[in-house]
Amino acid sequence: MTEAHGLLGVRYAGDGGAVCEPLGGSAIIEATVSGGAMSVMRRALGWAGLAVCVFAAMSGSGAEPITLRLHTFNSPKAIVNQLFLQPWARELAASSEGRVTVQVFPAMQLGGRPADLYGQARDGVVDLVWTLPGYSPGRFPLTEVFELPFVCGNAEATSQALTTFYRKWMRDEYRDTHPLVFHATAPGQIHTADRPVRTVDDLSGLKVRAASQTVAAMLEALGAVPVGMPVPQVYEALARGVVEGAMVPWTIMRPFRLHEVTRYHTEVGLGCTPFVLTMNRARYDGLPAAVRRLLDDSTGMALAQRLGRIWQEDEEAGRDIALQRGHPLIPLEEAERARWRAATAPVVGAWVAKVDAMGYDGRALLADARRLTAGHADASIR
User: Fold this and answer.
1) Which structural domain, as residue segments, surrounds residue 131?
2) Contact residues for 83 (Cβ-Cβ < 8 A; gap 6+)
3) CA atoms within a 13 Å half-sphere pointing along the CA-CB vector of 96
């Protein structure tokens, strides 16, 4: 029996095999299905055609549908859900002809705290998570290089640099899950409720929300009092005076309505915030080969670049709201920026010493992160 799928046909054999072929032509892909698994020989067809053939063959074999649960902390209205996770889930459903469903659960709907997310993926509580490595203090020391002051660049360049850096250096950090994509925000700015920050001295004693240990160390070096908390708690903390400011990129301001509880915005461009979409390793390894290929081919570097561009473009939207509200935007003169660099240099030195103690060459890794970021930034403007 042969079924038509666009310009391709899937011919089912009596032994459970399937041959994918052009209508009226010779076979291009042979696929054998056994117990929900499939081995595929790819000869001369792009992935879009391969996905159609493979999932058509799975359908003909009676393979069970696959449902993956994805958990994250951000609100349903956040950029990650609106422009990444939900569209990606729809793309997977379409590419698999409905055989693969990704159920997205935002706002910690499946329980726990944001800091629990990586462990939930590792332990199989859920199949996938999108989270900040920085929410697991000390667990991802090499990833922290992109949080260090004045290392990262725009979100698109940093997302690509982070992905390359992972492939070169960070695989061991994530060995207990299967990462699908890394990406990052643009550098963070200082947003305050009542006190404008024009110099590093203005940060003295100011309670500022920190996203991670690295950011906390940086703020402490600048004279501020860091207060750690996940971003969904920041609005209330600012409104109640628990903190007096937050270090976040512009893209975070809009979905969490932080313009309502801040007035001054110091554009300093400190560290970036890395993100990871990662999967329970056993769940990934147990999927049919065709599904693993679909997941891998829909993520990786191409998606990292795309997400970086989305996050970078959203910076302007967050910044524009502050301008529309008449909030002062405070730039730093180069001499003042040099003071911030000098004040935070010990944080960079401490990171180098930490990874040196782990057996790495910290200075070389730092230089590589900067080189990769600069290289991708140059490529994006060519």
Assistant:
1) 66-136+155-184+275-298
2) 310
3) 27
> Do 91 and 171 share a structural domain?
yes
Q: What is the DSSP string of 164-195?
A: HHIIIIIGGGGTTEEEEEEEEPPPPEEEESS-
Compute the CA torsion angle 205, 145, 126, 251 (nearest 10 deg). 60
The packing angle between helices 86-95 and 289-297, to 10°, is 140
Element (H, E) at 47: helix 47-60
Q: Which residue has the tokens 């993520």?
A: 299
Selection from 296, 289, 208, 277 nearest residue 244 by Cα: 208
Calpha distance 164→305 (Å, rounded):
11
Pairing of strands 189-192, 245-248: antiparallel
Residues 171 and 70 in one domain: yes
Question: 9-18, 179-188, 212-221: lowest mean pLDDT where?
Answer: 9-18
User: Could you tell me the pTM of the whole model?
Assistant: 0.84
pLDDT tens, residue by residue, 255-288: 999 999 999 999 999 999 999 999 999 999 999 9
pLDDT in tens, 143-169: 999 999 999 999 999 999 999 999 999
Residues 6+ apart with CB under 8 A from 343: 200, 221, 222, 223
Partners of 227 in the β-ladder: 209
- Name the residue with tokens 């590589």: 368
Q: In this structure, what token pair is assigned to residue 374?
A: 């600069």
Give helix 289-297 / helix 47-60 axis angle, nearest 10°: 150
SS3 153: coil
CA 355 from chain centre, in angstroms, equals 23
Query: Which residue, 79, 247, 82, is CA-closest to 149?
Result: 247
Q: Kindly report, residue by residue over 332-371, the tens digit of the pLDDT.
A: 999 999 999 999 999 999 999 999 999 999 999 999 999 9
Q: What is the dihedral of CA 202, 204, 206, 208, to 10 degrees?
A: 90
Residues 171 and 23 in one domain: no
CATH value at residue 263? 3.40.190.170
- CA 216/CA 360 separation, integer angstroms: 24
Gap between the Cα atoms of 266 and 313, Å rounded: 19
Q: Is residue 90 part of a domain?
A: yes
